[in-house]
Amino acid sequence: MGVSPRPVLMTVAVAAAAAFLTPVATPTNLMVMEPGGYRFGDYWKFGLPMMIWFFVIAVFAVPLIWPF
Predict the structure, then answer these.
(1) Dihedral sign (CA 1, 17, 56, 44)
(2) Is 2 part of any domain?
(3) For the whole model, what pTM was predicted?
(4) Within a domain: residue 48?
(5) Which of 39, 2, 1, 35 is nearest to 22 (CA)?
(6) Residue 1 in this model has a pLDDT that exceeds 80
(7) Residue 37: inside a domain
(8) Does residue 7 fall inside a structural domain?
(9) Is the model's pLDDT at 55 over the cut of 80?
């Protein structure tokens, strides 16, 4: 087909790295939940804007760095 799979794979990698909405998404989030006194809903307050930011950056950066 002549289309490189790299942009798709890198988009999946960026999406996997942008798991900020729940404390169980990454071990680091889960480790700081109890000592930091965070509740489950606190992750949505910061995680949703970060997920939107990651999405916007990925939509523009991935095709520039890894062209189709």
Answers:
(1) positive
(2) no
(3) 0.69
(4) yes
(5) 39
(6) no
(7) yes
(8) no
(9) yes
CB 10 within 8 A of CB 62: yes
**Locus of tokens 């790295």:** 17
The angle, 0 to 180 degrees and rounded to 10, between the axes of the packed helices 6-17 and 42-65 is 160
Total number of domains in the chain? 1
Residue 43 contacts residue 20 (beta carbons within 8 Å): yes
- The residue among 6, 5, 38, 9 whose CA lies nearest residue 24 is 38
pLDDT tens-digit profile of 12-44? 888 888 888 888 877 888 888 889 999 988 888
Residue that the structure tokens 């071990």 belong to: 27
**What residue numbers bound the domain in which 39 lies?**
19-65
Structure tokens at 9: 């794979």
